[in-house]
């Protein structure tokens, strides 16, 4: 196997086309320089240099080898610094899972903050419901989740990012849109509903049934994506409970109203991660979230 010292010797001669000047640049004498290049050529199996008493030139094989050798040396020189930056969390890759509603609001601000504070961290973004996020965190496929969950496994730590109101999405022409007062919880009794899925959006589903006496015979659709729910409301398929951040989405024919008899800011969005993660970039971002 050839060594980096042999490659450095070859590159020095190739760049100077003179053994004496190359030896001087490397702070060594010519005999050991010549031996290093001879060892390299024996390993490669071809002559990399043509030399005589008057001049040194590169062979065609030497020219090809030089291109790769310069890249190799640059990578070798940069490797220790890269390793230190990755270990410190200044560089690296962070995979983030997020719910659709967080994509409407806080996700953009979080991405901006990470990019400004840690420009060396590359972000991978994946839209998924909270249950999928927890599965992916457990299996190491994502590092950080932005979701809604009241209960998490013991290996998951979390930080509250946002608490917001629960709103009702109402279509054009519906009687509740024309009320001259704020909504009350009993206003939705007997209305067709578009609900969050009990299996795929469990936390939001549990939140709704905790605060409203849902008649499941009036549930027309159970789905997991907020934007789909809002589009169904626009097409007059029912009413939908959504986080306030979803009102940032402008869908023609849909209006959003709050409940006067519902506690303010009951919908929580949390950052979630595996406490056993060894990703230094994650530790830096968690510190940023907590600050």
UniProtKB/TrEMBL annotation:
<dbReference type="InterPro" id="IPR036388">
    <property type="entry name" value="WH-like_DNA-bd_sf"/>
</dbReference>
<keyword id="KW-0804">Transcription</keyword>
<dbReference type="InterPro" id="IPR036390">
    <property type="entry name" value="WH_DNA-bd_sf"/>
</dbReference>
<comment type="similarity">
    <text>Belongs to the LysR transcriptional regulatory family.</text>
</comment>
<keyword id="KW-0238">DNA-binding</keyword>
<keyword id="KW-0805">Transcription regulation</keyword>
<dbReference type="InterPro" id="IPR000847">
    <property type="entry name" value="LysR_HTH_N"/>
</dbReference>
<protein>
    <submittedName>
        <fullName>LysR family transcriptional regulator</fullName>
    </submittedName>
</protein>
<dbReference type="Pfam" id="PF00126">
    <property type="entry name" value="HTH_1"/>
</dbReference>
<feature type="domain" description="HTH lysR-type">
    <location>
        <begin position="1"/>
        <end position="59"/>
    </location>
</feature>
<dbReference type="Pfam" id="PF03466">
    <property type="entry name" value="LysR_substrate"/>
</dbReference>
<dbReference type="InterPro" id="IPR005119">
    <property type="entry name" value="LysR_subst-bd"/>
</dbReference>
């Amino acid at each position: 196997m050839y060594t980096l010292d042999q490659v450095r010797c070859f590159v020095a001669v190739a760049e100077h086309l003179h053994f004496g000047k190359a030896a001087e640049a490397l702070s060594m004498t010519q005999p050991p320089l010549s031996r290093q290049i001879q060892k390299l050529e024996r390993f490669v199996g071809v002559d990399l240099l043509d030399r005589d008493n008057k001049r040194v030139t590169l062979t065609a094989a030497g020219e090809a080898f030089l291109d790769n050798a310069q890249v190799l040396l640059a990578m070798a020189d940069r490797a220790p610094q890269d390793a230190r930056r990755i270990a410190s969390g200044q560089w690296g890759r962070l995979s983030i899972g997020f719910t659709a509603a967080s994509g409407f609001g806080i996700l953009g601000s979080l991405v901006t903050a990470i990019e400004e504070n840690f420009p060396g961290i590359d972000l991978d973004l994946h839209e998924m419901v909270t249950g999928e996020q927890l599965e992916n965190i457990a299996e190491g496929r994502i590092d950080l989740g932005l979701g809604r969950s009241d209960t998490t496994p013991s290996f998951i730590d979390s930080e509250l990012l946002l608490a917001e109101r629960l709103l009702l999405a109402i279509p054009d022409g519906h009687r509740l849109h024309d009320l001259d007062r704020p909504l009350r919880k009993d206003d939705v009794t007997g209305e067709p509903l578009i609900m969050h899925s009990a299996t795929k959006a469990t936390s939001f589903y549990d939140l709704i049934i905790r605060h409203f006496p849902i008649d499941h015979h009036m549930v027309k659709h159970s789905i997991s994506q907020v934007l789909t729910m809002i589009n169904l409301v626009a097409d007059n398929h029912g009413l939908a409970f959504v986080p306030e951040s979803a009102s940032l989405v402008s869908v023609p024919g849909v209006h959003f109203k709050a409940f006067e008899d519902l506690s303010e800011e009951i919908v929580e969005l949390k950052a979630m991660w595996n406490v056993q993660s060894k990703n230094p970039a994650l530790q830096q971002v968690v510190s940023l979230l907590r600050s």
